[in-house]
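Regression check, ISJ case 103:
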Amino acid sequence: MRTEILRLRGSIDNIDASLMYLLAERFKCTERVGELKAQGGVAPADPLRESQQIERLGRIAAEAGLDQRFAEEFRSFIVSEVVRRHAAIAAERGQDTVLDTFS
Ligand SMILES: C=C(O[C@@H]1C=C(C(=O)O)C=C[C@H]1O)C(=O)O
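Current build output:
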């Protein structure tokens, strides 16, 4: 039992590290999207894009055997932080007037 748990923990640690690297890469991309949106006067959140993501990730979660409610909460947690950052970038640049969403 002990040996198997220790072996599994080794894999869990590798998976956690991968998640951190993936999230860091994702935030690098979204940070740049935030700068481009602020430059263009585009709204921080994009509800149409998000509804497409919800649909797509819900399908992928079901296929992968991942709880769909959990998948959506996880997506929403990350995207909320992205949208908060986009609003902060726009505010830092004095870009308070929003023209439209990107989609
Ligand atoms: C990154 C964007 O901005 C927001 C964040 C999203 C995300 O983290 O995937 C998706 C849509 C937007 O609400 C974008 O518009 O692409």
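Comparison notes: The two ends are 52 Å apart (CA to CA). The chain has three helices and no strands. No diff flagged against the previous build.
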